[in-house]
Write a structure and sequence with these properties.
Blueprint lengths: L3 H11 L5 H4 L1 H20 L13 H9 L8 H7 L5 E3 L17 H17 L4 E3 L5 H11 L5
Parallel strand pairs: 1-2
Length: about 150
């Protein structure tokens, strides 16, 4: 499933808002939550054996927590009805870290986000699976091993 955050950021930029999450984290998160819930529903209807999400619904809570942004989103209830089978996490990797027009975080900020993501998923009862550094093929092989699926 696609990364929805970029789509929202680019649309806001076309409307004159450089980075919606930084300007209005609650509005950004509200839009993102609705789109991720639709994405999750779409995945449930998929005929594929496996569906991978670039980001999950709990990521929204992690980012708001990191920004110490108060909110009234019912994440606990949403996450009870929108469970993921496995949570793969990619640890910060300085050698490949880049920023661009939509991804503004420094490497130091990326490490903080990673910690908050780990904490949020753990709080929700998930055991995260860290994808080791390596070539793209090695990383795919690792994922498939975790899913007990041959290459």
């Amino acid at each position: 499933m696609d990364e929805i955050s970029r789509e929202i950021t680019l649309k806001a930029r076309k409307n004159g808002i450089e980075h919606l999450f930084l300007k209005n984290p609650l509005l950004f998160s509200e839009i993102l939550l609705e789109k991720r819930k639709k994405q999750y529903s779409k995945a449930l209807q998929s005929s594929h054996d496996h569906v991978f999400f670039d980001r999950g619904i709990p990521d929204i809570e992690a980012y708001l927590n990191l920004k110490k942004q108060e909110h009234t989103f019912p994440f606990f209830e949403i996450n009870k009805s929108s469970k993921y089978d496995k949570i793969f996490i990619t640890p910060p990797w300085q050698e490949i870290h880049t920023t661009d027009n939509e991804r503004y975080e420094s490497f130091s900020e990326t490490k903080k986000i990673h910690t908050e993501l780990e904490n949020t998923y753990t709080k929700l009862g998930y055991k995260t699976i860290s994808i080791p550094f390596g070539t793209p093929l090695q990383r795919v092989e690792f994922l498939l091993q975790q899913l007990d699926t041959p290459l």
